[in-house]
From TrEMBL:
<dbReference type="GO" id="GO:0005739">
    <property type="term" value="C:mitochondrion"/>
</dbReference>
<dbReference type="InterPro" id="IPR000089">
    <property type="entry name" value="Biotin_lipoyl"/>
</dbReference>
<dbReference type="InterPro" id="IPR001882">
    <property type="entry name" value="Biotin_BS"/>
</dbReference>
<dbReference type="Pfam" id="PF00289">
    <property type="entry name" value="Biotin_carb_N"/>
</dbReference>
<dbReference type="InterPro" id="IPR050856">
    <property type="entry name" value="Biotin_carboxylase_complex"/>
</dbReference>
<dbReference type="GO" id="GO:0005524">
    <property type="term" value="F:ATP binding"/>
</dbReference>
<dbReference type="Pfam" id="PF02785">
    <property type="entry name" value="Biotin_carb_C"/>
</dbReference>
<dbReference type="InterPro" id="IPR011053">
    <property type="entry name" value="Single_hybrid_motif"/>
</dbReference>
<dbReference type="Pfam" id="PF19331">
    <property type="entry name" value="MCCA_BT"/>
</dbReference>
<dbReference type="Pfam" id="PF02786">
    <property type="entry name" value="CPSase_L_D2"/>
</dbReference>
<protein>
    <recommendedName>
        <fullName>Methylcrotonoyl-CoA carboxylase subunit alpha, mitochondrial</fullName>
    </recommendedName>
</protein>
<dbReference type="InterPro" id="IPR011761">
    <property type="entry name" value="ATP-grasp"/>
</dbReference>
<dbReference type="InterPro" id="IPR011054">
    <property type="entry name" value="Rudment_hybrid_motif"/>
</dbReference>
<feature type="domain" description="ATP-grasp">
    <location>
        <begin position="154"/>
        <end position="352"/>
    </location>
</feature>
<keyword id="KW-0092">Biotin</keyword>
<keyword id="KW-0067">ATP-binding</keyword>
<dbReference type="GO" id="GO:0046872">
    <property type="term" value="F:metal ion binding"/>
</dbReference>
Length: 794
């Protein structure tokens, strides 16, 4: 790569300036004809902020729209003007096209940019914008209609000779017909909505027995997310790669591609790490893929930004058209990084009637880029979305090779109403290996506290050997789950995690002690000349070293039931070291020397190693939460009592941390969400694993199932009701029968495969088989009755 190419690659803004200077005559002409002076961004979050940033650089004013929940959000603060469009539910605000268009007209905007998601792929919205005399910054409504309907798009592509995966793409949606079509295709099959994207509504069905529930669930989720519940069926390719091509067209019939992206690494059918260009493909394959994408775009008269998605069968090497996204993709920044172009600027210029700024042969391809999506989600709970306050939010600083696309800031609330993505971390390197090193480094420095995130999981992904080699496919996470997920029952892994947490706790104790002493010195600075004697050094005692204690509870990220209480003793020595010990005498004291850098950042020497340490401290639910980042490690501790300086002989006040407990059989909400359907009535008999109700959060459905067989009790929630994370939904009373004898009346219960006995008041008498047999003898039950009871249990 030449020096100039490297310079342009590493500084995209400079590239844009060079390109503008090289075509100044053209720009001077078009600037006199420019119609777009103000853009309304019909979206929220990071994409709204992203669009506004480019618009402002081009001297275009911006208008934000916001729901009541987003009144103080970052995208509202980033705009020149903002208009409220309704209450928090998306269907009443960001999916209300008429309100958005009215807001654009009232604000005097000439154009509407839809971003991605919400109404970005609604042909009706695009048509409405144009009918009102505004410019829609996107493709024509006809192309959105043709390609947005996945069934129609497959028919068009089939007619054009583009290879398709076998499936059913018809308009008839009768469930019995669909079952017959699924049988024809052959299981496993993929059920997916004909509209929308983002993995919402997709279901993999392995057998005919699961078809009906999966089909109806997909319809409900599609209706909630896109307002249309039609479904298509496809043969499910068992080892696919997801490779997509960025295309761009202008209103003069010119269409080109800007190379491909690999988006194979997914969870819940949603991408979490994307990269460009795709690894492990030949130049010949890349050329054929790009040509097919351009042909697809030309077939529907496409202009503006779009993405043609392909499924690549790793077993055969063949690729198949999957769908076309008629909008800017979430992952467009990785393409921008390898071609050095601002695609939002291209969108605005094309919408303004300008030709594409480059021809196909002029599109550069330089280096490699990754994008990691950072979500508020609970990885151990199957990546369920999480909500809460971002008490601490410190993303890595941006540079010429690092971008952070975000729509939040510290103190914001991650709401249950919208997608839980916090940020997109985008990095560039001269090679894939160099870009991956940068990705790992930036992930280790990306700090979020207040909600659970997938950052630790992303780090495991980036460090996976197969991923490092580019050996990816859409089942990557499932196939490598043993390496990516921590088994809470693995004692070796647990001890490693616990040992690392103990070391982190000692660093926390030293840093907080140093901060306490620094605050003490600052509070007594100035005044009497005696002050430096008493307050510029930590407390001391004659013939003793100053000592304090601190209690922390380690929050085990992967298994909350195995969290540990840690009692630390902190001893300060005159040489500036803190000696930190956990417990009484069994633990080796660690010597830690700290240097307070401000803003809860420290330079620490411990165990012969110097490292940078960052802390986040906040209070939530009357508990102090302490997070520490050092190197690639992040630990979370809780504390009910602050640091207490005390005499060695004084009794230390200790507080135990007790987690909420519920009676056996209680089922709690795994996330905050909306109850969309209750499948059984209170008092109904259920089997273990039977669906009881359906929750929805961030447009994703989650089926809550019975944890054991028995009778449903306390089911008081109903469809349309909001529930909080951890709230009690219902209880399953386990199977039982009553037995009477001269010694009393009893119930025998089966719960989690354990035999239990209690009297009718509910007091347990016996919980193991030996005691059960003794109890039967006590009850004077004959041998024949014993056999009868055991058969009844089996």
């Amino acid at each position: 790569m030449s020096l100039m190419a490297s310079f342009l690659r590493r500084r995209p803004a400079v590239l844009l300036q060079v390109r503008l200077l090289s075509s100044s005559t053209h720009l001077e002409t078009t600037s006199q004809q420019q119609r777009i002076e103000k853009i309304l961004v019909a979206n929220r979050g990071e994409i709204a902020c992203r669009i506004m940033r480019t618009a402002k650089r081009l001297g275009i004013r911006t208008v934000a729209v916001y729901s009541d929940a987003d009144r103080d959000s970052l995208h509202v603060k980033s705009a020149d003007e903002a208009v409220n469009i309704g209450p928090p539910p998306a269907r009443l605000s960001y999916l209300n096209g008429s309100s958005i268009v009215e807001a654009a007209i009232r604000a005097g905007a000439q154009a509407v940019h839809p971003g991605y998601g919400f109404l970005s792929e609604s042909s009706a919205f695009a048509q409405l914008v144009e009918d009102k005399g505004l410019t829609f910054i996107g493709p024509p409504a006809s192309a959105i209609r043709d390609m947005g309907d996945k069934s129609a798009s497959k028919r068009i592509m089939g007619a054009a000779g583009v290879p398709l995966v076998p499936g059913y793409h018809g308009s008839e949606q009768d469930i019995e017909l669909m079952r017959l079509e699924a049988d024809k295709i052959g299981y496993p099959i993929l059920i997916k909505p004909t509209h929308g994207g983002g993995g919402k509504g997709m279901r993999i069905v392995q057998s005919p027995n699961d078809f009906v529930d999966s089909f109806l669930g997909a319809q409900r989720e599609a209706a909630a997310s896109f307002g249309i519940n039609t479904i298509l069926l496809e043969k499910y390719i068992t080892q696919p790669r997801h490779i997509e091509v960025q295309i761009f067209g202008d209103k003069f019939g010119n269409v080109l591609h800007l190379y491909e992206r690999d988006c194979s690494v997914q969870r819940r059918h949603q991408k979490i790490i994307e990269e460009a260009p795709a690894p492990c493909i030949t130049d010949e394959f890349r050329t054929h893929l790009g040509q097919a994408a351009v042909s697809a775009a030309k077939a529907v008269g496409y202009h503006n930004a779009g993405t043609v998605e392909f499924i690549v069968d790793t077993a055969t090497g063949h690729f198949y058209f999957m769908e076309m996204n008629t909008r800017l993709q979430v992952e467009h920044p990785v393409t921008e990084m390898i071609v050095g172009q601002d695609l939002v600027e291209w969108q605005i210029r094309v919408a303004n009637g300008e030709p594409l700024p480059l021809s196909q042969v002029q599109v550069p391809l330089s280096g490699h880029a990754f994008e990691a999506r950072i979500y508020a989600e609970n990885v151990p709970k199957g990546f369920l979305p999480a909500t809460g306050v971002l008490h601490h939010y410190h993303p890595v600083p941006p540079s010429s090779t690092v971008r952070v696309e975000t729509g939040v800031e510290q103190g914001d609330v991650v709401s249950m109403h919208y997608d839980p993505m916090i940020a997109k971390l985008v990095v560039w390197g001269e090679s894939r290996a160099a870009a991956l090193v940068k990705l790992k480094d930036c992930l280790s420095k990306f700090q979020v506290a207040g909600v659970p995130t997938n950052i630790n999981f992303l780090q495991k992904l980036a460090n996976n050997k197969a991923f490092e080699e580019g050996d990816v496919e859409t089942h990557f996470i499932e196939h490598h789950k043993d390496d990516l997920f921590v088994d809470p029952n693995n004692s070796v892994i647990y001890e490693e995690a616990y040992s690392a947490a103990r070391f982190g706790a000692k660093l926390v104790a030293a840093c907080l002690s140093d901060k306490e002493h620094s605050a003490l010195k600052e509070s007594h600075s100035g005044g009497s000349s005696l002050h430096p004697i008493w307050y510029t050094h930590p407390p001391f005692r004659v013939n003793h070293h100053a000592q304090s204690t601190m209690e922390l509870e380690w929050e085990n990220e992967y298994d909350s039931s195995s969290s540990k209480n840690l009692m630390l003793s902190i001893t300060y020595h005159p040489d500036g070291n803190y000696f930190i010990q956990i417990g009484e005498n069994s633990d080796h004291a660690l010597a830690v020397k700290t240097s307070n850098l401000g803003n809860n950042n420290f330079r620490v020497e411990a165990g012969g190693v110097t490292m940078d340490v960052s802390l986040a401290v906040y209070t939530k639910d009357q508990i102090k939460h302490i997070h520490i980042w050092h190197g690639p490690h992040h630990h979370h501790f809780r504390q009910k009592l602050g640091l207490e300086l005390s005499d060695e002989d004084e009794t230390q006040h200790k507080t135990s941390f007790e987690s909420a407990s519920h009676p056996p059989g209680t089922v709690v909400a795994p996330m905050a969400g909306l109850v969309v359907k209750v499948l059984v009535e209170d008092g109904a008999k259920v089997e273990v694993g039977q669906p009881v109700l359906v929750l929805e959060a961030m447009k994703m459905e989650h089926v809550v199932k019975a944890t054991s067989g028995g009778i449903v009790e306390g089911l008081k929630v109903g469809a349309g009701q909001q529930v909080s994370d951890g709230s009690v939904l219902f209880r399953v009373k386990v199977s039982h029968f009553e037995f009477s004898s001269q010694n009393g009346s009893f119930q025998f219960l089966v719960y989690n495969s354990c035999l239990q006995c209690c009297d009718l008041s509910g007091a347990y008498i016996s919980c193991n088989s030996l005691e059960f047999i003794k109890l039967l003898h006590y009850l004077s039950v004959g041998f024949d009755n014993l056999i009868s009871l055991l058969v009844k249990f089996s």
